[in-house]
């Protein structure tokens, strides 16, 4: 462990901001001022307005000590979201802890596409059955359940930690989701249920690339949520093999994919023999990020 920082000369909010921000900058933070603000507000439980209008207020020495400890944790690349315990996804706050992947903005595109395409295929009011494979924090399944309360939403994860955290999120957000623990679609195959919508953001980083990821990701996020096997495509392969058994006669499949994987995954959807149309959607960085398959 590090020796604790001595910031006992810091007496106001403004001084705390300056001190924390220059410490984080020296440690290599890209947006040190923003991070310092978040950590101070987190230590005080303040919103942005309160913070911005209290710059000259004095700050409690215990809070300063707590802030210094948070800054030291951040210097070891611990993700801010784990430190604060929360990440916003599709306009809702999700509890996140080290047992689950921090939901990413790219995944919002996946969810948006599912909602758009489902409306186009079935209309808004149909009571569809949607399954989300790889629950994580519950970002996908809970958002779908909140946005389309008339749907039945189920989700599967291998990790009991993830299932526990996602259940907590469902309770907090008032979402009705059926949680199952197991390996990919295995629990669904066992019950013989067929789905209208299959959505997944599976682990897709090729095993040998996991070591190359940023420290923030590599040291703190669960490997189970990242490692997609030798070529990164193992989960898609297994999911696509199960499609003939899983899909209803009219169905939608939606996958998030990693860089340069969309073509291979599109091909797997075709090869399944039950998909009539495949479509690819790019993220805001122009990377092919979402692969959609429709069975008509
Ligand atoms: N479905 C979750 C998410 O998108 C978890 C995904 C994962 O762990 N690979 O955030």
UniProtKB/TrEMBL annotation:
EC numbers, comma separated: 2.1.1.297
Gene Ontology MF annotations: nucleic acid binding; peptide chain release factor N(5)-glutamine methyltransferase activity
UniProt-annotated binding residues for S-adenosyl-L-methionine: 134-138, 157, 201
Binding site for substrate: 201-204
InterPro entries in the record: DNA_methylase_N6_adenine_CS, HemK-like, N5-glutamine_MTase, PrmC_N, RF_methyltr_PrmC, SAM-dependent_MTases_sf, Small_mtfrase_dom
One protein family per Pfam: PrmC_N
Assigned keywords, A-Z: Methyltransferase, S-adenosyl-L-methionine, Transferase
Residues of the Methyltransferase small domain: 130-206
Keyword set includes Transferase: yes
Protein name: Release factor glutamine methyltransferase
Family, as annotated: Belongs to the protein N5-glutamine methyltransferase family. PrmC subfamily.
GO BP terms in the entry: methylation
The keyword S-adenosyl-L-methionine is assigned to this record: yes
CDD domains tied to this protein: AdoMet_MTases
EC primary class: transferase
Catalyzed chemical reaction(s): L-glutaminyl-[peptide chain release factor] + S-adenosyl-L-methionine = N(5)-methyl-L-glutaminyl-[peptide chain release factor] + S-adenosyl-L-homocysteine + H(+)
Role: Methylates the class 1 translation termination release factors RF1/PrfA and RF2/PrfB on the glutamine residue of the universally conserved GGQ motif.
Residue ranges annotated for the Release factor glutamine methyltransferase N-terminal domain, each copy included: 15-85
